[in-house]
């Protein structure tokens, strides 16, 4: 059995996987990793099966002691990871010796870092998924973010003894800009915006509010987009939906977002662009561009 | 261009593609919208359409989510229209015990409704409600059928934490917070019963379309029941 001890859980580190589907009619959000691309790469590098859990670190990674030898891979945001004080490569598989301390600092590029550990993690699935949903206090590690003295265990895989380095091809390593243009398809209530407000939505640059989290990316702009807000009855929403509350500052729903909402759904971000949005740091900026369809 | 509607469960639905693998359906009928949404949810759940992984019934819509973006919705649902007759709502009536004594917002409720606490309790507990939907948070139960005399607008500033089991009124709806969560409804009581458990499959025994009746209990009965729940 492999294991690690958390010395410092960082700002907001949770266990996530591909998400929890099939329970939305009970109000259970899908959860799962915010950046699917970085997640898939991390698991692939350590040769784990597709749905394996990973650690998702937000803005500041934390400190972890490996109590046994392990093969790991770090992808996503660049948090200057170090092992025993020495810089460690990202986007590649790394052999970590027993007793080593992995430390990740503040994100220099991007917002979320993923750590995959080779083997079968010894944690319980809740409703079919390893993902942590902190607001509901379930899934992952006791339904919460990791903190000092937590211990993660996994079943050793034999590959540790004949470790072969596996590296992500250069052209598959994304660049995380803090200024992005995201494509969206108009949502069910897009036409509630006047032509003038639709234009404003395209021409504005939106700032990522620091209150953003796994539930939603909250956006601010100099001139809010106003919408006639006829009484809307709550209706289904999914990650990627752009909601427009009466205040005029849009919210992009993310993986822990609610299952139904009562704000106009003016658009849906293309899933592929959602990975980049997940990597936007606070004060990052987004512009929107209309896509022809899914 | 394909027409933006389809036939399902004997009626016409408008369709809107809301995501790569998500469609929003709305019944094109005047009356009985909620009932059609609940019946059609059951129909779809029994349909055996493998790719269909999530259904979100709401007041005037049904959101269907597939496991692939490569779905021809009309084709997928075209054969289902024939099985309408077989679908009957399997209605359950759930009795929910409520201790109104421990409500948090009685002063505000009395002011807003101009009724006494006793009158509000009597009106609230005399009706049978329909579960309109569950969500936006795990296990939150939205009930349809509130008497308009006790409708009350939400609190100006939402609570950051509403205790698990709270029974509230928000506008013309009433509902139950199955888990502790933030919320802005007026809290008029608390149930000692638990409606959402992550360790059970399904996590809830109540479903959209079922009926709920509130049974008032005294504070001592409430405390006793809470104790027995561990």
Structure, explained:
By secondary structure, chain A is mainly beta. Chain A is built from three helices and 21 strands. In chain A, the strands form four sheets. Chain A has a seven-stranded antiparallel beta sheet, with no helix packed on it. Chain A has a seven-stranded mixed barrel with strand order 13-20-17-18-15-14-21. Chain A has a five-stranded antiparallel beta sheet with strand order 2-3-10-5-8. The longest helix of chain A is centred in the N-terminal third of the chain and has 10 residues, at 36-45. With 230 residues, chain B is of the alpha+beta class. Chain B contains five helices and 14 strands. Chain B has helices at 33-45, 73-78, 106-113, 117-124, 219-228, and strands spanning 5-8, 11-19, 22-27, 52-57, 62-66, 93-98, 128-134, 141-144, 159-162, 166-170, 173-176, 181-183, 186-190, 211-216. In chain B, the strands form three sheets. A seven-stranded mixed beta sheet of chain B has the order 6-14-7-8-11-10-13. A five-stranded antiparallel beta sheet of chain B has the order 1-2-3-5-4. In chain B, strand 10 and strand 11 form a beta hairpin. Chains A and B meet through strand 16 and strand 19 of A and strand 2, strand 4 and strand 5 of B.
